[in-house]
Amino acid sequence: MRRIPVTAAVLVIAAVVAGTASENAVDPVVAERQASMKKMANAAKTISGIFDGKLAYDAAAFKEAAETIRRRSGSAMVTEFPRGSFGDPSAAKAEIDQSRAEFAALALHLETLATALSATIDDAPDGITESMRMKPGMAMGSSLLGKRVGGAAEADPAKMPAEHLFHLMLQDCTDCHAKFREKRR
Ligand code: HEC
């Protein structure tokens, strides 16, 4: 058996859900993007459960979860963070305004991966196929930020196993939060 433990994925999701700080979000822009992030976190939990076998396989639910992340990332995500919409009650760092290109690159990278993941589900109506699984020795995660610094070219997402795509997606969540989100509570 060469199932890769999804424990890392679950930890990432637990961390983002625990970091929720929307109790006193009155600004609708902030409230809306926090709600959108939460929907992505729930979708990621569904995907993780499906890969783990903790959730019964349901192609429609799987597709919907991948599409939720695809629709909420990319330029849709970027527009949720207009100039100056930072500071309490938002956990978004003002640094987003100084690093717009990097912020957008992470959002767009997530969209690219989610698009590729969503496409793999069309060929898997009845369950996770062998080709969707990560192969032994495949990197668990590889940071977009690290890649840009290192300058290495990235493999074509359309050719990556679904499980690998999902791990890379979670890496984008983590990378963006590490740089652009306040640690609270
Ligand atoms: C391009 C940057 C970026 C990416 C990519 C990103 N996030 Fe976020 N996320 C943020 C920022 C910034 C905040 C803080 C928003 C605020 O409080 O105004 C946040 C907040 C959150 C929150 C807390 C919401 C709340 O109720 O306060 C969750 C949960 C979350 N993100 C999950 C995810 C998941 C899951 C992914 C990946 C599938 C993801 N995020 C990808 C930037 C990002």
From TrEMBL:
One of its GO terms (biological process) is electron transport chain. Residues 1-25 form the signal peptide. Pfam families: Cytochrom_C_2 (PF01322). One of its GO terms (molecular function) is heme binding. It comes from the Bacteria. Keywords: Signal. Coiled coil: none annotated. This is Cytochrome c. The lineage of its organism: Bacteria, Pseudomonadati, Pseudomonadota, Alphaproteobacteria, Hyphomicrobiales.
